[in-house]
Amino acid sequence: MTKLSVNINKIATLRNARGGEFPSVTEAAVKLQKFGAKGITVHPRPDERHITRIDVYDLKPLITTEFNIEGNPHRPFIDMVLEVKPEQVTLVPDADDAITSNAGWDCEKNLEFLKSVISEFKNAGIRTSIFLDPNPEMVKFAAETGTDRIELYTEAYAKKYPINKEEAVKPYYETAVEAAKFGLGINAGHDLSLDNLKYFAENIPNLLEVSIGHALISEALYLGLENTVQAYLKRLATW
Questions:
Q1: Nearest Cα to 103, choosing from 67, 135, 76?
Q2: What Cα–Cα distance (Å) separates residue 128 from each residue in 26, 71, 99?
Q3: Each residue's pLDDT tens digit, 101-139
Q4: Residue 118 burial (10 A CB sphere; 0-12, 13-18, 19+)
């Protein structure tokens, strides 16, 4: 079954809006794992507007499933990941002032840089994944970086899903098929939700993991955190 990793950035955003330690990102991580999540994802940014560096270090000993740290691999980020040693690091080319991630890597243009960064992580025993747009032609360059997995950037799928779900998923399927030829694992994330997740999971071969934050935490406002996690797990299990 595809693993559900819950991104807890939004928990930190809520905490930071008021100051103090409530709601607690560490308590949220513990409870999410108890409720069935198979991983915890964080995406610390340089301005620490949600997850902070301290959060990353505080979370590490509490993760009993899989710890996935996302981010743009500037030197401070690289050094932090090497020290924390999560199970997985996901490299995302987002600008420092971006509200959220908005594009995958141009692996051809950034090939040598990605090779260098990924080799550091792999030498430390950390599984690597790189954020990628649904573009089969980019997969061969992604494979050349030495990464273990790609994470499909699913915003376009989420936007097109209500209009034509078959067309929405097509480039993702094609990219996943191409990735399999190179032995790359498939992760996915960004704007996946209770509405669109099941169809995506049914149609993407070798989908190992989805990372979901904004939608899941938002839906939990209505359904409760435990119920929402269980609802996501059902979407992933029924196919």
A1: 135
A2: 24, 12, 24
A3: 567 899 999 999 999 999 999 999 999 999 999 999 999
A4: buried
Look up residue 36 and give its two tokens.
């069935």
Q: Which of 135, 128, 127 is nearest to 106 (CA)?
A: 135
Instruction: Classify residue 85 by its DSSP letter.
Output: -
Distance of CA 104 to the CA centre of its chain: 12
pLDDT in tens, 218-235: 999 999 999 999 999 999
Q: Is 81 helix (H, G, I), strand (E, B) or coil?
A: helix
Judge contact between 108 and 81, C-beta under 8 A: no
Q: How many residues does the chain have?
A: 239
Q: Are 178 and 205 in contact (CB under 8 A)?
A: no
Look at residues 55, 57, 48, 122 and name the one whose alpha carbon lies nearest to residue 91: 122
- Collapse the DSSP code of 88 into the 3-class scheme (helix H, G, I; strand E, B; otherwise coil) and give the result: strand
Determine the Cα–Cα distance for residues 133 and 131; give it in Å rounded to an integer. Answer: 7
The residues carrying an active-site annotation are 43, 70, 190
In this structure, what token pair is assigned to residue 169? 């998923």
Q: Are 12 and 54 in contact (CB under 8 A)?
A: no
Residue 65's DSSP bridge partners are none
- What does the mean pLDDT of the chain come to? 95
Exposure on the CB side of residue 17, measured as CA atoms within 13 A? 7
CA separation for the pair 171, 161 (Å, rounded) = 12
Q: State the DSSP string of 127-187.
A: EEEEEE-S-HHHHHHHHHTT-SEEEEE-HHHHHHTTT-HHHHHHHHHHHHHHHHHTT-EEE
* Cα separation, 226 vs 33, whole angstroms: 10
Query: Which pair of tokens denotes residue 236?
Result: 């992933």
- DSSP bridge pairs for 151: 131, 187
